[in-house]
């Protein structure tokens, strides 16, 4: 009961930032890069295991960004990068580049998730969750209308085919838990029915436990929209997902009552009860208090505890501390339920 997990990404160690700069300058060879990223994955796994996290990931350390650098670099058909409209001042979502699809988008060598899993599987005996950006989120940096795609949803359907093929390969490798990350659903809540169809198409015939992570964005540690899940209900309950990961800590547990509808629909809830955007390290007693609040709506066998979002925008010392207190808080409530 009340498993602990992370959403996907983990905090980078300081040396990875300097290593990436050296890579950009051409100072690292292919083997140097491979060794560096292997070491980063090892560190992410070690920190999770040291904290006692039940279900872990490889920290997404190889992706060098949520999706643009880590995934777009594997695609064919993209070009003509449109520079960010604002280059000066505080970091924000309006400082992100956009790409043009010059021809239909393909992934000749896949999206790289299989290699990620193979390495992580060799480095841990714990259950592994494989996160993957969802098709609508992946489509967010492609300029439309364009030469090949009329709008973002059409791009998303092209990505859906690529993702589904990758997920099926993961299952063949032995993966039994896959999570699609779709912060863009809650950011664009006007077409929930279309999102359901897109999601179900993407996971069709993928024989694994399927999670959906719904958040409000975390680029440079900032959300990007009005933070409410309500407009997505009841439509998203028709998604063929086994678990809904939702953020609550940074919203002071607002809308936790919606989790009752998720549980009543026969689905599990991964509740974000640790704030990745805040350097306040929640003490275990506070985490336990938040878990008890969720238990008023979700039975313990359907509840797991996570951070609100990935830790990629959080300093490692804080991420590591938050993992430890999150796990301790879960253990407090587990003991009360035994």
Question: Which structural traits does this protein have?
Answer:
globular, 11 strands, TIM Barrel, alpha/beta, two-stranded parallel ribbon
Structure description:
- This protein is of the alpha/beta class.
- The chain has one domain (3-67, 112-337): TIM Barrel, CATH 3.20.20.210.
- 39% of the residues lie in helices and 16% in strands.
- The protein has 11 helices and 11 strands.
- The mean pLDDT is 93.
Secondary structure: elements and pairs:
Layout: E1 3-4, H1 14-24, H2 30-51, E2 55-56, H3 68-72, E3 76-82, E4 98-106, H4 113-123, E5 127-128, E6 130-133, H5 135-138, H6 152-173, E7 177-181, H7 183-187, H8 192-202, E8 209-214, E9 243-247, H9 258-264, E10 268-274, H10 284-295, E11 303-307, H11 316-337
Parallel strand pairs: 1-11, 2-5, 6-7, 7-8, 8-9, 9-10, 10-11
Antiparallel strand pairs: 3-4
In short:
The protein has one domain: TIM Barrel, CATH 3.20.20. α10 links the parallel β10 and β11.
Q: Report the CATH architecture.
A: Alpha-Beta Barrel
Instruction: Tell me the domain tally.
Output: 1
Tally of strands? 11
CATH topology: TIM Barrel
Q: What integer is the average pLDDT?
A: 93
Instruction: Tell me the radius of gyration.
Output: 19 Å
Global outline: globular
Spatial order of the strands forming the largest sheet: 1-11-10-9-8-7-6
Provide the helix percentage. Answer: 25-40%
What's the tally of helices? Answer: 11
The stretches of 5 or more residues where confidence is low (pLDDT under 50) are none
Distance between the termini: 10 Å
Largest sheet entry: 7 strands, parallel
Order of helices and strands: EHHEHEEHEEHHEHHEEHEHEH
The CATH C-level name is Alpha Beta
Amount of beta strand = 15-25%
* SS-derived structural category: alpha/beta
């Amino acid at each position: 009961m009340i498993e602990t997990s992370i959403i996907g990404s983990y905090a980078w160690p300081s040396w990875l930032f300097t290593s990436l700069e050296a890579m950009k300058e051409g100072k690292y060879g292919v083997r140097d890069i491979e060794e560096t990223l292997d070491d980063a994955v090892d560190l992410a796994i070690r920190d999770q295991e040291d904290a006692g996290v039940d279900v872990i990931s490889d920290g997404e350390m190889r992706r060098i960004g949520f999706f643009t650098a880590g995934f777009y670099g594997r695609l064919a058909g993209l070009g003509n990068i449109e520079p960010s409209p604002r280059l000066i001042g505080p970091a924000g979502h309006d400082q992100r580049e956009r790409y043009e699809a010059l021809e239909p988008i393909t992934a000749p060598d896949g999206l790289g998730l299989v290699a990620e899993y193979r390495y992580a599987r060799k480095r841990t005996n714990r259950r592994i969750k494989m996160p993957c950006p969802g098709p609508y989120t992946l489509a967010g940096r492609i300029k439309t209308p364009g030469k090949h795609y009329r709008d973002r949803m059409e791009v998303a359907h092209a990505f859906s085919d690529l993702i589904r093929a990758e997920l099926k390969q993961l299952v063949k490798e032995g993966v039994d838990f896959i999570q699609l990350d779709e912060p863009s659903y809650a950011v664009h809540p006007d077409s929930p029915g279309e999102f359901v169809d897109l999601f179900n198409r993407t996971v069709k015939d993928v024989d694994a436990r399927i999670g959906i992570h719904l958040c409000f964005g975390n680029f440079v540690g900032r959300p990007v929209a009005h933070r409410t899940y309500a407009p997505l209900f009841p439509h998203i309950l028709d998604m063929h997902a086994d678990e809904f990961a939702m953020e609550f800590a940074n919203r002071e547990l607002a809308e936790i009552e919606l989790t009752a509808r998720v549980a009543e629909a026969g689905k599990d809830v991964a509740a974000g009860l640790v704030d990745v955007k805040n350097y306040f390290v929640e003490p275990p007693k506070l985490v336990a208090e938040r878990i008890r609040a969720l238990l008023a709506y979700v039975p313990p066998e359907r509840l797991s505890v996570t951070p609100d979002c990935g830790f990629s925008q959080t300093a490692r010392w804080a991420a590591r501390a938050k993992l430890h207190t999150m796990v301790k808080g879960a253990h407090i409530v587990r003991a009360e339920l035994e």
